[in-house]
Specification:
This protein is an alpha/beta fold. Helices cover 35% and strands 23% of the residues. It has one domain: Rossmann fold, CATH 3.40.50. The protein binds S-adenosylmethionine (SAM).
Amino acid sequence: MQNPGAASLALFTREIWANPRAMGAACPSAPSLASHMAAHVPLDRDGLVIELGGGTGAVTAALLKHGIPPWKLVVIERSPTLAHHLRQRFPQLRVVQGDAAQLAQLLDHDRPRGVSSIVSSLPLRSLHPTTTRAIAQQLETLLQPGSLLVQYTYDLRGVPPRLLPHFRRRSTRIVWGNLPPARVEVFERE
Ligand SMILES: C[S@@+](CC[C@H](N)C(=O)[O-])C[C@H]1O[C@@H](n2cnc3c(N)ncnc32)[C@H](O)[C@@H]1O
């Protein structure tokens, strides 16, 4: 039987051929990147943790391992193939297939539970600027002041501040063990 890492890589590669700009990466996130992102998510806050761009599930697995209870985690994934994969891999989770640019609408009946943190693997720089702007507006709407956004980027200079105008950078670090190295940034909603 094919091992899960090889299966994820094969799936990821097929998705890159189908939609390179939306994937924005050559490989699934390495465990070191995924665990570094998950470690920034506070466990003691009420409200949902939303993962954007779940892909093959590397960050999803790290969030569960970090201690986020499955009933608090909602995963958003635009690709129907990857959303299907995530549902099979994590039957205990709510996986919503849709575009993060319509996040509030996708969360719909979950919204009264509030959102405490958002963990994003979205390739903000390679998406169409209109989509990136719409996503940033959704993040501003859903996160209360003080709530956290964890985002990574392959641009080692970091996420350009113009992409997230209403967020303050709280911490930033390069994870050299990812392929390619990535910068993980934690932002706080102002
Ligand atoms: C860099 S990849 C995800 C990597 C993931 N952490 C993994 O290890 O597989 C980016 C993901 O974001 C998804 N995505 C891109 N644009 C999206 C959007 N507008 N809304 C939701 N998901 C999106 C892609 O389909 C892809 O799965």
